[in-house]
Design brief:
By secondary structure, the protein is an alpha+beta fold. Helix content is about 25%, strand content about 25%. The protein contains twelve helices and 26 strands. The chain is elongated.
């Protein structure tokens, strides 16, 4: 099989091996407890060598660890079986008759490096070709060694091969050990020939944590982008931290200056702990300091710092959040963020919005534009009206977000509110009534007079925006040809286009209320009824109008979000 493409990063492979070898050796040793730890290490090295040949495919599929964890025990068992079968064959058939003993010039070079210091041994051991991890042959497992129950004489330092001896039942050694020595001589040959390969494997990139500490002991090296010499970066640029010869332990990015309004940058660590990336934008025109620490295989810690600055924005956008913090609102109130200027990169904004509810409530963000003012908003509404008592929390990490054409937002925003009484008022223009329900119970039916045929009231669902005891209304403010100018009492605001539910005392005694629609589009009622409705109305209450000849109010006209089906509303999200 061919080696990985040049696009593969050997440092990534080395870091992966360093980070996982100790754990994988322990796993193989535990799975095949008949093997000594050295044999388990050999199996893991061989698995790493095979992983290197298919590194691009393994990393493209995700984490290569499950593949290595599966292959290594199989290699260990296969190696043990081959060694066992070779020795059994020697015991059964004996060695070839013409097998010569090893000459001193073959034995000595294999054992000579044992007397050298680690640095000297590294210099004289043959080096593996670049890109070709090499793993030595495994030694015989413990079960194989148990076949020899007699004393074992240690291998002499001078390089002579060890001899395994066992007394025959009659106490003699010659005939019994003659065959054993021939077999041991062959096994000894395998071990001696394996020694250079094992030495090369110890120097290979794939090593356990203890190997790395004892063989090279390289200190962890941390790279931070941008570094301290970099020019000012865009507020929504990504900060990256990478570690070589170690694993990242902490990464902190904080704004300079006590009491700074600037945001603290957060990020995420890779699975291998070799890299970290920021996952949120930064405040424009701010100096940030990065502090990162990493630990190498020997347990030594390295620290690196970098200081950089974000570019100051040339133009900015503003945002207004509704409802206000700690408010108690009705069951129709969406969570809304209205922007001072149009947003062209809606997805960048929406990715930074986080909403939590208790109890959990299904809902979706949707982008709308007020047809009258042109104000652009992103609203979150539930699938159905809120449940009473629901607690809602919004966190919007907007500082440094580019809303389009390098127009940045300068601050994070948040709000937390509670859903109050489920108040829904049903306006029937055919019956000329408004029936008010609270928590599912009917509280009142009020005679009303809505928009006349030339100025009909909007159909559809509206949400209470605000209210005032008196509002001065003119025909010019809503573009009506029929002139009027009145101070209107007990006014409850329903749309940005000027729809109200209010008292209309000037129509009392005319027989309009409960009988005929004669307003300029609002829902009018007697003074006492208007005051009663005003006293109970709360921001977020729902008013549902049916029976009008006019179109349904658009989703951007006030909080007309409910006039779309939930499926249609979901499609207004920039992330769908």
């Amino acid at each position: 099989m061919s080696a990985p493409s040049t696009s593969s990063a050997p440092s990534d492979f080395d870091q992966y091996c360093t980070a996982t070898a100790k754990r994988l050796v322990a796993a193989v040793h535990a799975a095949t407890d008949d093997l000594a730890e050295a044999e388990a290490e050999d199996a893991v090295r061989e698995a790493y060598a095979q992983a290197w040949q298919r590194w691009d495919r393994l990393t493209a599929d995700g984490d290569p660890t499950p593949w290595v964890r599966t292959v290594a025990p199989r290699l260990a068992v296969s190696s043990w079986r081959r060694a066992r079968n070779r020795v059994r064959a020697h015991f059964r058939h004996g060695p070839p008759a013409d097998l010569p003993d090893l000459a001193p010039d073959r034995v000595a070079p294999a054992h000579a490096p044992r007397g050298l210091k680690p640095a000297q041994r590294t210099a004289v051991v043959p080096h593996r070709p670049v890109g070709v991890p090499h793993v030595g042959l495994p030694l015989a497992p413990r079960s194989l060694r148990r076949r020899f129950t007699g004393p074992v004489r240690a291998e002499p330092r001078g390089g002579e091969a060890a001899l395994l001896t066992r007394s025959s039942p009659d106490g003699s050694h010659d005939s019994y050990n003659s065959r054993k020595r021939s077999s041991v001589r062959s096994v000894r040959s395998l071990r001696i020939l394996a020694a250079p390969s094992l030495a090369v494997a110890l120097l290979a990139g794939c090593q356990s944590a203890s190997d790395t500490a004892s063989v090279d002991g390289k200190p962890a090296r941390i790279t931070i982008t941008p570094d301290s010499d970099a020019a000012a970066i865009a507020p929504d640029a990504t900060v990256k931290v990478a570690a070589a010869h170690g694993a990242l332990t902490t990464v902190r990015i904080t704004p300079d200056g006590a009491g700074s309004h600037a945001v603290t940058v957060t990020g995420s660590l890779s699975k291998t702990k070799s890299s970290w990336r920021s996952n949120r934008p930064m405040t424009p025109g701010t100096t940030y300091t990065v502090e990162a620490t990493a630990t190498n295989a020997a347990g030594r810690t390295a620290t690196q710092h970098s200081t950089f600055r974000t570019r100051a924005g040339q133009q900015f956008n503003g945002v207004t959040v509704t409802p206000s913090n700690k408010a108690v609102v009705g069951v129709g109130q969406p969570v809304s963020l209205a922007f001072d200027h149009p947003v062209t990169d809606k997805a960048a904004v929406e990715r930074q919005l986080s909403l939590s509810t208790a109890p959990r409530t299904e809902g979706s963000w949707g982008w709308v534009k007020d047809p009258l003012t042109g104000t652009e908003r992103v609203d979150w509404r539930p699938k159905t009206y809120w449940h009473k008592g629901t607690k809602v929390t919004l966190r919007a990490r907007l500082s440094g977000v580019n809303t389009g054409d390098s127009r940045y937002l300068r601050r994070d925003v948040s709000t937390a509110f509670t859903i109050g009484t489920a108040r829904v008022s049903k306006v029937d223009l055919n019956q000329h009534t408004m029936t008010v329900y609270e928590d599912g119970q009917k509280k009142n039916t009020i005679p009303i007079s809505a928009g006349q045929p030339s100025y009909p009231t909007w159909n559809g669902t509206m949400v209470v925006l605000d209210k005032a005891p008196t509002v001065h209304m003119t025909s010019e403010s809503v573009g009506i040809a029929d002139p009027y100018s009145k101070d209107v009492p007990w006014a409850v605001h329903l749309t940005t286009s000027g729809t109200y539910a209010h008292a209309a005392p000037w129509n009392e005694g005319r027989g309009y209320f409960g009988h005929v629609n004669m307003s300029h589009g609002c829902v009018g009622m007697a003074l006492a009824d208007g005051k009663w409705f005003y006293s109970r109305a709360t921001r977020g209450d729902v008013v549902e109008v049916t029976g009008s000849t006019r179109a349904t109010v658009s989703q951007g006209n006030g909080f007309g979000d409910w006039n779309l089906s939930y499926g249609a509303w979901q499609k207004l999200s920039a992330l769908r």
